[in-house]
């Protein structure tokens, strides 16, 4: 289901994730800017807040994060079939590129030339991702920005991995909920 | 056929036991590939370099390459799809459960903390990626050791950041222009 409750065609889901997968350099979070643009801004299939949820979940289930993100988003739109369509879309371009390279250069060492062509893209991807990250952080309220800064500092200092930080935040939220529930039980209005 | 099944089983195992993606997957893949003699250490490093330069996550690229080498087109597809199979099953099995509870007060409180946390993590990843492009002589630049300042990297990185952040340029356009500029500048000033 989309936001306006019209089922999204599976071919559309496949096509959109194939577009994102085709320009995903650097793996991991590098696909976020394009994914946000395609799924939220261009298609209006999901909201920014919902995508934030999906990124968090994609980290804590096993597997490749980019593929997990596609699976989760696809599942929200069309259930199991949507998840399969999104996953297939996400990996279609990488498969095609690697197969083409493998066929063109039997020895991997011949790939250095191609690699140099792609090298120019790396800093562009980094700059784009930074802009997206700033926008994600800037969207929040004051305390949310502070929490984001703490998480960012922990990750940069190598203090904790992403999975550990996400699980810690989830545990904190759950504890806060239990505490609030206990307090309201003790002092009923 | 049993070869394809074996291939799929190994990559499904890699997909199942990787938490956190990216770097967490690296040692697992390396161990499996070396232990089975499917890749040599040098080939693994080459794949790693190529995977960073081409679209797609490293694990997907490795699965496709190894699958192709061992079983042709069918092998490439089997290995890559097997890699995604565990998380696909998990999401389909637990997706309904999550949807039911995300609107509970408990789910809302958890989400309230998760969103800023993930934004901070993305920021950290972005800063790390920028630093890597600016300080290590750019990706793939041969003979440039760690700690080399890369002016081209800085210019492209800052340019694309400014264009998409301040002026809301289309990300794809920003990527294409930045990438071409980076390639041209590196070719002009070695």
Helix content of chain A: over 70%
Supply Rg of chain A.
20 Å
- For the residues shown, what is the average pLDDT of chain A? 82
Number of helices of chain A: 8
Order of helices and strands of chain B: HHHHHHH
The main pleated sheet of chain A reads as: none
Number of strands of chain B: 0
Tell me the span between the first and last alpha carbons of chain B.
Answer: 50 Å
Q: What structural category characterises the helix and strand content of chain B?
A: mainly alpha
- Which blocks of ≥5 consecutive residues of chain B have pLDDT under 50? 137-145
Domain unit count of chain B: 2
What is the string of helix and strand elements of chain A? HHHHHHHH
Largest sheet of chain B: none
Structural class of chain A: mainly alpha
Rg of chain B: 20 Å
The chain pair forming the largest interface, with residue counts per chain, is:
A-B, 106 and 106 residues
Q: Beta-strand percentage of chain A?
A: under 5%
Q: What is the count of helical runs of chain B?
A: 7
Apparent shape of chain A: globular
Instruction: Name the helicity range of chain B.
Output: over 70%
Q: If you average the pLDDT of chain B, what whole number results?
A: 80
Note down, in words, how this protein is organized.
The complex is a heterodimer of chains A (189) and B (190). Chain A has helices at 10-22, 32-42, 48-60, 65-104, 112-119, 121-138, 142-156, 162-186. By secondary structure, chain A is mainly alpha-helical. Chain A has 2 domains: 10-139, no CATH class; 141-189. In chain A, helix 1 (10-22) packs antiparallel against helix 2, helix 1 packs across helix 4 (65-104) and helix 3 (48-60) packs across helix 4 (65-104). With 190 residues, chain B is an all-alpha fold. Chain B folds into 2 domains: 2-101, no CATH class; 105-188, no CATH class. Chain B is built from 7 helices and no strands. Chain B has helices spanning 2-16, 25-36, 41-53, 58-101, 105-135, 151-165, 171-188. Chains A and B meet through helix 2, helix 3, helix 4, helix 5 and helix 6 of A and helix 3, helix 4, helix 5, helix 6 and helix 7 of B.
